[in-house]
Design goal:
The chain has one domain. It is built from 6 helices and 6 strands; from the N terminus they run H-E-H-H-H-E-H-E-H-E-E-E. The chain has a 6-stranded parallel beta sheet, with helices on one face. Strand 2, helix 5 and strand 3 form a beta-alpha-beta unit. The longest helix is centred in the first third of the chain and has 13 residues.
């Protein structure tokens, strides 16, 4: 499959300015759990960053909706793999799933597993709030180059105890993510992709 054909199928990759590589985003209004949390004061999703700023631009919303519609395409996994491997050739060896949006189904999760297996030289990171899908899999099923971090729902809530890799949001300055001190960028940091680090704490935006 050619890269241009892959883009036609998947809607293309996203490139958040903060990230060291590429990503794949979906509309935040289609988050199954997150959209409910957007109405809960004190939740991480209240005032969701992916519902405003550049994410609210018409062309960005159109692109995310195209990606959402593409998830059930029979060649979605192959097309994603082709694009990610094409970026790896130019040094992009880290990938983030869902800088906006979240898992839509168990099938979606398993298709992501297939993509990770087909891109073995790339490190994949996926934050999620969709506990119900993770309950349907075993840890050993997760590709070695993928880390799934379960995100706590509330600001200043501790890490989820039912999953080995997590992320939290804190209001104080004692958080592990260094981006706030380096222009809101990852820079050389790759903690989110590191399975030896059980929890990543982010500062509240």
């Amino acid at each position: 499959m050619k890269v241009f054909e892959a883009k036609e199928i998947t809607g293309g990759l996203s490139k958040p300015s903060k990230m060291p590589g590429f990503s794949y985003n979906l509309p935040a209004y289609k988050c199954i759990t997150g959209v409910k949390l957007q109405a809960v004061p004190g939740s991480v999703c209240a005032g969701c960053y992916a519902m405003k700023g550049r994410y609210a631009f018409g062309n960005v919303k159109d692109a995310m909706n195209r990606r959402l519609a593409s998830l059930t395409h029979p060649k979605w996994g192959l097309a994603m793999s082709v694009q990610i491997n094409s970026k790896f050739k130019y040094g992009h060896d880290f990938f983030r799933w869902h800088d906006s949006g979240d898992l839509q189904s168990l099938e979606h999760l398993k298709n992501i597993f297939d993509v990770c297996l087909a891109t073995p030289d790339v490190g994949h990171w996926m934050p999620t709030r969709e506990v119900k899908f993770l309950k349907e899999i075993k840890i050993k099923e997760i590709p070695k180059n993928l880390i799934i971090r379960m995100s706590s729902h509330m600001i200043d809530q501790g890490p989820v105890k039912s999953w080995p890799w997590t992320s939290t949001v804190k209001t104080d300055k004692q958080h592990s993510c260094p981006s706030s001190k380096q222009g809101n960028k990852c820079g050389s940091c790759r903690q989110c992709w590191d399975k030896t680090i059980p929890n990543i704490s982010y500062g509240k935006h």
